[in-house]
Amino acid sequence: MTESERQERARLLPAWNSARRRLADGPTGESVGARLARLAAEGADAYDLTGWTDVYGDEDGIVGELERRTAAALGTEAAAFFPTGTMAQQAALRCWAERTGSGTVALHPLAHPVRCERDALRRLTGLSVVHPTDAPRLPTAAEVRDAAEPFGTLALELPLREAGFLLPSWDELTATVAAARERDAVVHFDGARIWECATHFGRGLPEIAALADTVYVSFYKSLGGLSGAALAGPEAVVEDAAAWRHRYGGQIFQQWPAALAALVGLERELPRLPEYVAHAKTVAAALREALTESDVPWWLVRPREPHTHQFQVWLPYGVRELTDAGARQAEETGTLLFRRWSEPTGGPPGLAMHEVTVAAAGLTWSAGDVRDAVAEFLGFLPPRSSSRTG
What family is reported (predicted)? Predict the structure, then answer.
């Protein structure tokens, strides 16, 4: 972290954390002591804390219990805990390359392994990547079926975060998976946020996971854990992946705090995600209404109706002025609507994007509250043209 980044963090965190009202709590809103105290209190409801701490992921300890509960939640034979999702997916895709005899993975160019892992698939595992489509959505069955290059594994990110947390319909997803099977390819789900997909698909997690050969899930995205991930699927594949976890340095001596936080997430947050998804639709609709009535010359809420409890908002301002406006609103009014903005992937200059998350803290917000907060937020921005589009 650079000195300027440290200064910005020191300025923004107090502003965000001082807000009395927010749509979701952030990961940096507590002191270390407060977070530890909360973990101990909540953990007692998720696991017997009178037992011993485990080492190296003892199957009779907290990590083993987390793996069993994860497999049960997804309806798979087994699951293995990993310190990061990056490592979990590299291990999974490497295992499938060995089993299929093909080192080529079909991935969307916006998928996490392509955009966020420093070319790890190629440099660490020796795999190559092909793209069935570059459209800002998951590939269709026709695109998978007609892909010009052969591949052994199709990896689908559910939801596709960079495109606005987008999901296909259930019929589209099943057709795409079937198209991969027609090409004798296996299917892996990058399900970091698969926990909140059940509402959109109208299916339970086991039915969704059953479409794929393996599924990766995150414990800190959506579930509010400290860190960590799991790979779930057939026992033989999970065991192979666990061996690669050890080779990659992921067999950590003590990782029970992260596992305990994940168990809390499975117990407390997972059952509430459908409620968050439903309320995100209310928040997004109110945002659209407020922006339509505003003088902002151009804006986008993407997707129009969220598929999960997260979605994007695009505005024609700079990243710094939007981030500063959100911090000032939090400081001066006690309402935190937006945190840090960023330059959107593939967007033209002069636009900024924010990923909105609706969780427990946001359930008390009415549509009117959202509209008022938007109008208030825009008041902290410099005036713009009065022409409107939406």
Answer: Belongs to the threonine aldolase family.
Q: Are residues 152 and 218 in the same domain?
A: yes
Buried b (16+ CB within 10 A) or exposed e, 84-111: ebbbbbbbbbbbbbeebebbbbbbbbbb
Rounded distance, CA 72 to CA 266, Å? Answer: 11
| Confidence (pLDDT) at 226 | 96
Q: Strand 186-191 vs strand 229-233: parallel, antiparallel, or unpaired?
A: unpaired
Output the DSSP codes for 180-199.
Answer: HHHTT-EEEEEETTGGG-HH
- In this prediction, the residues of the chain whose per-residue pLDDT falls under 50 are 385-390
DSSP string, 66-93: HHHHHHHHHT-SEEEEES-HHHHHHHHH
Q: What's the pLDDT score for residue 366?
A: 98
- The model carries a pTM of 0.95
Interatomic CA distance for residues 101 and 236, integer angstroms: 17
| Residues in contact with 44: Cβ distance below 8 Å, sequence separation at least 6, in sequence order | none
Question: Comparing C-alpha atoms, which of 190, 237, 240 is closest to residue 215?
Answer: 190
Going by C-beta distance under 8 Å and a sequence separation of 6 or more, which residues neighbour residue 132? 106, 108, 139, 143, 144, 147, 154
The label of the residue with tokens 């689908």 reads: 156
Domain hosting residue 340, numbered range: 11-32+272-378
Domain count, the chain: 2
CATH of residue 64's domain is 3.40.640.10
Cα(222)–Cα(274) distance, integer angstroms: 11
Please report how the helices 256-268 and 62-74 are oriented relative to each other, as an axis angle in degrees rounded to 10.
40
